[in-house]
Amino acid sequence: MTYRAPVTDILFTLEHAAGLGRAREEGVYADLDADTLAAVVDEAGAFATDVVAPLSREGDRHGARFADGAVTTPPGFADAYRRWTAAGWNGVLADEAHGGQGLPVAVWAATTELWASGSLAFGLCPMLTHGAIEAIEAHASEELKERYLPKLVSGEWTATMNLTEPQAGSDLALLRAKAERAGDGSYRISGQKIYITYGEHDFTDNIVHLVLARLPDAPAGTRGISLFLAPKVLPDGSRNDVVCAGVEHKLGIHASPTCTMVYGENGGAVGWLVGEENRGLACMFTMMNNARLGVGLEGVAIAERATQDALAYARERRQGRANGSEGAAPIIAHPDVRRMLLTMRAMTAAARGICYRAAVEIDRSRAAADPAVAKAAHERASLLIPIAKAFSTDVGCEVASLGVQVHGGMGYIEETGVAQHMRDARITPIYEGTNGIQAIDLVTRKLPLADGETVRIEIASLRDVVRRAAETNAPELGAAAPRLAEAIDALDHATAWIAAASRSPAEALAGATPYLRLFALAAGGAALVEDALAELRAGEGALGRVALARFFAENIATGASGLARSVTEGAGALDGAAAEAALGI
Amino acid sequence: MTYRAPVTDILFTLEHAAGLGRAREEGVYADLDADTLAAVVDEAGAFATDVVAPLSREGDRHGARFADGAVTTPPGFADAYRRWTAAGWNGVLADEAHGGQGLPVAVWAATTELWASGSLAFGLCPMLTHGAIEAIEAHASEELKERYLPKLVSGEWTATMNLTEPQAGSDLALLRAKAERAGDGSYRISGQKIYITYGEHDFTDNIVHLVLARLPDAPAGTRGISLFLAPKVLPDGSRNDVVCAGVEHKLGIHASPTCTMVYGENGGAVGWLVGEENRGLACMFTMMNNARLGVGLEGVAIAERATQDALAYARERRQGRANGSEGAAPIIAHPDVRRMLLTMRAMTAAARGICYRAAVEIDRSRAAADPAVAKAAHERASLLIPIAKAFSTDVGCEVASLGVQVHGGMGYIEETGVAQHMRDARITPIYEGTNGIQAIDLVTRKLPLADGETVRIEIASLRDVVRRAAETNAPELGAAAPRLAEAIDALDHATAWIAAASRSPAEALAGATPYLRLFALAAGGAALVEDALAELRAGEGALGRVALARFFAENIATGASGLARSVTEGAGALDGAAAEAALGI
User: Fold this and answer.
1) Would you say residue B356 lies in a domain?
2) Scanning A135, B100, B125, B307, which has its CA 20 to 30 A from the CA of B541?
3) Running DSSP on this structure, what letter comes out for residue A74?
4) B440–A195 C-beta distance less than 8 A
5) Residues B102, B231 share a domain
6) Which residues form the Acyl-CoA oxidase/dehydrogenase middle domain (chains A, B) (predicted)?
7) CA dist., res. B558 & res. B552, Å (int)
8) 3-state secondary structure of B227
9) Do residues B511 and B566 touch, judged by C-beta distance below 8 A?
10) How would residue B1 be classed by pLDDT, with cut points 50, 70 and 90?
11) Catalytic residue among A15, A113, A200, A432
12) Could you please report the per-residue DSSP string of B176-220?
């Protein structure tokens, strides 16, 4: 149960698998030398380990509590939040003009992983604030920026995103919240929003709500949605007409208040437009990449913490003999337990590699002097984001479940704390676009980017990693290169199949989820090999990264061919009268 | 949330995939015609639907409560238990000589699934009583049988199994509970046992504990363990020296009291030997097949209920357009959601087919006149049991998790009820031998049965199903036959690899878990095809079973080749200094 921030692993993967080292040579990280990066991640790791991680269990037991419109967070949360903002962690990414530190996305990604490992419920609050800061920076008027950005960047105030309504989840076209022009440039908002993370809490005096709503004369569907800023406390100090009507009783993240927010019970909540009327969804898209990457990092974070717990237990717990041991051996010596633990380690590292690579591509897209390079990097990041989000959160759930299994009966007892990881992780494949939505995004929007050139370049870069691995002839890599080459072949084949001119949308969509997993196996395996090659080059140490790359390639990436088959030959089974009979429709 | 017992599916799968029809022709079910079978399952289905299923949610919310050594079960549980025993359901399997109905294991299996679907926490109590009845029938003295069996069979009393101690879980060699000879033929037992299901409750006046303990002069290890019967209330009406010291706070099955039992705080709990001294583990083996099958059926049960909930939600919930729908379509129309639902249906049906086939083999082993047939059937059942237990419980977890995903944000809210399925299911891969232990049992004890003839016959029978499928040339089966043939080839190859004389135990154990999964994909796929062939022969209806068989073969069994590769080429990555570095040892 003692979390230790994996600072060395994070820095190593950033440098190698994520390509930060290469990007630095290109000048992408001109303002961030390696020592500064290491110092920042180390400092964040210490805070996550010492201050945030101890909140997790009590936060789960106590939960966020609701009474009379107010929410009380668990003991220690508000204090930790204040220490965290005082240390400047809220402003890592934000523009220096608004009081932020203007650090690269790669640094934000590393710190985001660390807070979420410490306590997912704690890390959610700043995650939402960050999204709002991005949207406001990109789209709000100068007046709104001046009024709200400094306090959001310092963390003196927090922010929320209000999208979902009971009838409008994945499908925002169905949303009904209303906004009317007040005549003075402001708007009056009314309606109910659900699942609002930290919609109400006791961390700060004010909460800035970003709300999607429709104007009276707006067109139907997604082109009639506008984005508004409606603070809990108005500039004149009065309470706005928005209240928290309750918090959900959830499977996990108990310390994070998931609020039902009611706007306009007394004439309408005062709000101001962000961006243009009816262009609210475009504003949301601005922050989507970072938000989805952030949730992917939550998956990595929980997987990391679950793995640490399982490793610690498996080294201590003695059951059964192994390798001719005298008496019972630590269960880590049993091949089956070892397979579970290596799976946990390798999956976590693969997901981390993909997430951090997306972060570096975002940084490249922002820093590159050559617009063509910037565009290509942006497209590469856009391609990787749905994979980073969906694969990493699936990994979070799978690894947390394996962690319970490693603990045996103890894992099922709540006091042990590892069942909580499973409960906490389970939200991440759902929110910020379900993993099904991510797969659809990958297949329908990301594969066609740059006429397919983006994915072609990505696959070529995966092949390049494998080629370099094969050239080492290092026996420690086992069959990693050939197994990974097969996975990439399978990916290539499935990609071409989806892109074929004759492909119907329904056929392509039917295989979207196995396709995303297939992509992740190839990209994750390549990330591990990239780290392994760096370890081999360094020529010292016990080659633990090489072992992970080999394990992943030989035992996990081997699933690629079956996934490719589901993509290219599995769609037929989903349709028709027989399939509908099987589903009772 | 409305559970409807899947009586038609159960009867169909028993008859075809499980081979009950064929066994009936052999005379295995001489005392049970098809109508009687159908009537019993139908009646049990009605009870599970009307009486047991409504307990589930409130049981989870309320939980079993402990105070002053007593356990209070949630509202309605004790009453439902009494109605259930009054209806005679507790005695389905037990010998008629002791008041049971002496029905076949196939019937017990069907009813076990139904109670567990209704409420896993409820179904656990009789599951434990059944195990004790089996052990007492097989090994206890006539006096103990007379004193305890009638009331255990009627359900007037319940029973428990006391194996685990804090330091002794999977490794019973480490157990320390003591038993001393009292000189009058009885024993005095002392020690602490943990994780005792229904160790204390308010259903009945007495509880019969079966306890593993060591005699003072017993040899070390598993050959020094004896089995004792120690009732809560002694024959003279006095309380025995055994108390419940507390109940665990668990991830799920909240309504099932998981007790810490303390024996002998006041001189020793009175107990009587069951079987011979130091032969306690052999007695446990007697009931192991049924107990493990029972837990496998719990996996099927939860998967079934989770699937019903997800299907109902997906037919109602409207989000996004599909197939050019006017306005939002039910999400079941979206290919990605449909893939999840078909996966849930197909995995559930495959696990059910494997479990019920094991049940029919047990019945054949008991009823066959020819000892060679009986022996072969017993070995076949023994081969299938670890697969039935481990695969079905993994399926329970995976399907329950998919059910949460289908529900989106709603799935994460406890009130919806589907997160409970996930929490409840998570214990089943752990108890009654972890799934890792099942895989080791399969590879080390079951593959060598009859010099490998048992597994050879099993694989040949899978091939026979595929051959018959291919011969139909039915277009509705799609590529089911070739895909399944490939899965069986992969299984055959992996089996030969494990059996090779040169194979070290460590190599074989390293691939045990992927091997078990591989076996289940082939056997589960064949079970679905067997049902599909029966549906095709009947020549009527909408061919839902054909669709499931096709979906499973084309989309799930396609994972077989990757699993075979993990078995035959993955072991090297688990060992050596690099792997140990990766695990921090």
Assistant:
1) no
2) B307
3) P
4) no
5) no
6) 161-262
7) 8
8) strand
9) yes
10) low
11) A432
12) --EEEE-SSS-EEEEEEEEEEETSS-SS-S-EEEEEEEB-TTPPS
Using CB atoms within 10 Å of the CB of residue B375, give its burial: 0 to 12 exposed, 13 to 18 middle, 19+ buried.
middle
User: Which token pair is B77?
Assistant: 């549980």
> In this structure, are B189 and B123 located in the same domain?
no
Closest CA to B286 of B180, B137, B166: B137
Transcribe A473-507 into DSSP letters.
Answer: T-GGGTTHHHHHHHHHHHHHHHHHHHH-TT--HHH
Chain A contact for B61, CB < 8 A? no
Same domain, A85 and A174: no
Tokens 């906490």 belong to which residue?
A424
Instruction: Report the DSSP beta bridge partners of residue B165.
Output: B168
Q: State the CATH number of the domain containing residue A206.
A: 2.40.110.20
Give A146-167 pLDDT, tens digit per residue.
999 999 999 999 999 999 999 9
Return the closest-CA partner of residue A209 out of A244, A245, A171.
A244
Predicted complex ipTM: 0.98
Residues B162 and B147 in one domain: no
A557 assigned to some structural domain: yes
| DSSP code of residue B276 | S
Domain boundary residue, one of B101, B135, B154: B154
Q: State the residue range of the domain holding B240.
A: 158-279
Counts for chain A of helices (H) and strands (E), in that order: 20, 10
- Which of A555, A563, A568, A580 is the best substitution to test chain B (most B C-beta atoms within 10 A)? A555
Q: Is A431 on the interface with B (CB under 8 A)?
A: yes
pLDDT at residue A1 in the model: 58
Establish if B4 touches chain A: CB-CB under 8 angstroms: no
Assigned token pair, B111: 């009813």
Provide the number of structural domains found in chain A: 3
Sequence-distant (≥ 6) Cβ neighbours of residue A163 within 8 angstroms:
A172, A175, A193, A212, A284
Q: Does residue B501 lie within any of the structural domains? A: yes
Q: Identify the active-site residue in B137, B432, B507, B530.
A: B432
